[in-house]
Amino acid sequence: MKKTIYSIIILLIFTNLAGARTKNAGLAMLLCTVPGGGQFYTERYLPGILIAGTEITLGYYAYKYHQEGDYEKRNSFLWWELFVFGYSLADAYVGAKMFGFDVEADLEQVSINFRVRW
């Protein structure tokens, strides 16, 4: 059962859903349960790698300090983990909503005019 769920999550992360011009924001946020999953779903690979690496590292150190009995450091790392997870959710939501948005601006149509009166 777990293999099937993980296979479906990995399939959703690494596919583009037949070239869709938009992404489902709810699915992007759901995929954030996998470190960097929402970012990979929205085809933003560098932030996905950075977020996944950060979440895994913070989780490792929280587990390490839990095993050592240093609960103050463990709690600190868990708070940072929660912050990164929240950032990941927000980033995945915005990435899904802005997916396919053309960011380029036509600079020839942009002008600034100044008028000085005496």
Automatic annotation (TrEMBL):
The chain crosses the membrane at residues 44-63. Keywords: Membrane, Transmembrane, Transmembrane helix. This is DUF5683 domain-containing protein.
